[in-house]
């Protein structure tokens, strides 16, 4: 099997959240520098911004506890 065939199999089923267009995209989409991911499912990618916000809040609260 060629290297290209192996790369295609690895990227199959990956989903991204595009920060430029604010939408979920399949692997073939905007450049990765403009996206969050990859995620295993479309649903996971759709929740990317909420997960990031939740993590940021938890980190901020942990920093406040350290003060």
From TrEMBL:
Residues 27-36 have a biased composition (Basic and acidic residues). It comes from the Bacteria. Residues 27-67 are annotated as: Disordered. This is SPOR domain-containing protein.
């Amino acid at each position: 099997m060629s290297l290209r065939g192996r790369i295609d199999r690895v990227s199959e089923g990956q989903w991204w959240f595009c920060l430029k267009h604010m939408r979920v995209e399949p692997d073939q989409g905007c450049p990765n520098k403009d996206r969050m991911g990859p995620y295993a499912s479309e649903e996971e990618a759709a929740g990317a911004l909420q997960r990031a916000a939740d993590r940021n809040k938890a980190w901020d609260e942990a920093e406040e506890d350290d003060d």
